[in-house]
Amino acid sequence: KKEVLLDAIFAFCCGFIKDALRKPQDKSKEALVSVWETFTEVAKNVEWDDPFHDRLICLLLWTKEFDVLRKSLRPQETKTRSAWEYYHLLNVMQNSWEELVFATHDTVAKQCNLASFTATALAIGTHDWIGITALWYLGEALETSDEKTIRLAPVTIIWIRTAGPKLLTFSMLKKKWNNQDVDKKVWVDVAWIQIPGKLAQEGGVTYHGFSLKRWMFWKSRFERLAQDVDEEIRAWATDTVDYMTEFDSMLGYNMMDKAKEEYESLDAPRDKVENVKPSKNIDKVDENDNGEQKPDDRHCKRSSLSRSLSH
Fold it and tell me: CA 13: distance to chain centroid?
């Protein structure tokens, strides 16, 4: 059945890419949006650890070559912004995630599935702008409340363990995006969603974007939960801390120790707040579900996820 599905997606993508190639760039975006929506919808419904995700990623890379082909056929467009950079594709990705995170019913299993696809796409460098959604999700999961951190742990683990090196690289480079970088038709307020959550701000994280201090704050959240009375929580939290530490050491820098010392020091000077705004509506999910959502044990148990990803 999956082979049939893959063939159907391939045919669908070919049709829309052909359609896009026949039109000027500003009119071809709708075809690309349809392709991207297909990927995200399929990814939501494929088990997070299913190798089929790799096939989807390969197909995504193939469709990305559309831009190369297009510009070779239309030299006059070589100086225009790539249709794959932002535009409506960012809207599609962000909307897919927000529908799951802010749903009033349990969606953790589907979040795990989509995270497997999205984090892999980010990790292998298909589109760096996926980092915007990654930063937003990690902020929602780790910078709002202990309850949400525990509930969304399976998804957060997939993000960090799949795209950890990329996320750490962004953190060291203080990667950020501005609204000016994004097409005016994109409804996502890129600057707003990069603002640290309430808990992160209380912990001294003020930079609006990726930063080493923010990475260390995320790690400290897992270190705290590694002391939890619940054995399963201790297990996955400890494993995640170990993974993040391994990513730190892979870079071979002493900057991580320096950042940790600065973060843990009560006397360390706080960064000046950059473009300070009120904290985001960080309790939106909790207001919708009253904290009663539980992960789907059939698809995404914390303990089984932790064991699987550690091999």
Answer: 24
